[in-house]
Design a protein that fits this description.
Distance between the termini: 57 Å
Shape: elongated
Structural class: alpha+beta
CATH topology of the domain at 348-453: Arc Repressor Mutant, subunit A
Strand order of the largest sheet: 22-23-24-25-29
CATH class of the domain at 348-453: Mainly Alpha
CATH architecture of the domain at 348-453: Orthogonal Bundle
Number of helices: 9
Number of strands: 36
Largest sheet: 5 strands, antiparallel
Radius of gyration: 28 Å
Length: about 450
Amino acid sequence: MRFHIFKLLTILAFFSFFGSFGTPNSSLKIKLSRQTLSQLYDPELSLVHFISPDSLFTVDLKSFILKSVTPLSFKDLDIRETEPIIVKGEMFFIDFSGGRVFKVSEKGLVRLDKSFNHRMQSYSSIFTYDNEIYRYGGYGYWGVRKLITKYDFETQEWEKVKVKSKIEPIGRFDPLTFVKGDDLYVIAGTALGINDEPYTLKDAWKFNFKSSEWQDLGTIDFPKFIFNSVESSNNFFGSLAIYDFKNRNFYSLDKETLLLTTFEKDHYFQKIIKGFMPFSIDSDTIISVINYGEHLFLRKLLANDVLPESNNLHPLLSQSPQFIKYLYFSAISLLIIITYFFLDKRNNIVMIYPKRLRKGLRSISISNKEYLLMKSLSENRNNLEVKTALLIIGEEHFNNSHNFRLKTEMIKSLNDKLGILIKSGQPLIMEKKNEYDKRFKYYFWNHEKVRLKV
């Protein structure tokens, strides 16, 4: 009975927690409370969960509205000392320093494990692989850990993952980690010296879950991480987003090639808050919690509008024998990085600008009238009337016959340019008679897979 009363009070408190949804920009911006502690993105269900001291609020990113409110009673658990994680659509809270595992259920927060809060793995990396929960490294009781452990849902205990390789990385805490395929990548982190003084590591390793072997990838060529000043996000246009809160530097690491992009410093990055790393939900949209004065807002933003130019691209790893193979693909990797940020990877687009047409990295110059004609065609891709084209192309001091000839020449010129741009062997701007009145003609865009955008 107490739980249901608590749930009702939580839902009633929602409006004061989340702010107003009735603003003109409500489809693009949601106000959050300063009590919000962190977020958790579920890419499979397109949901983002916000965690407060007593509740879990879920927003549907497709409709950009509140989906559910779940009251959570943490009792003696400090939610700020846990890592939220999703496995098969279910949410878990993993103790940041020990072995405790909590699950969000209809009854609230339920503890699952039979272990104890040993506090031996503070600042360890908690992640999922093959729908299992893992953690790597950590610090506790004046020592660092180098083991990988897995939570067993049947025994409700943590088990050590066996390592078959003769080499393995030294113990560390607070490293950058991500999983790609069957491999866990571990980058840098903090270790302890002889006198227990912390120092920053500059190495990179890869652990394969199938072979149970570590591989030394070499030394990284990356600015030194200051302990607890860097956060990362695995869902950033297929890359790993990295933000250095101390120096306000934003990076993107391509998981395939390990090429690192450094972005120019921008006011957008200065609004990012710890615990709320931005992430992408499609090829050109970013979801970000941004700090505006005394308020927090959940924003849906276009990448082209907020991401500044990248001013540097280089391999994460130093040019060692282990990394030589990546250097051969640097030019291709550059194209992939730019494609992720500035192109629609699902639909081919011809971008129409006043002086040029662009598709991907290819562009071609056009005249002002060609621009106006392409702009009209983008707005009427199936029925741009010939007389409309004549109004755009024709000159008042020429007769109709001459203006028709100018129109024909410009259509041919545009088709030639578009053929080069799109690599098409057929005309892309076609003429067709009106089905109801054969005296009238109109132009249409003759490509199903490529669309026009101004």
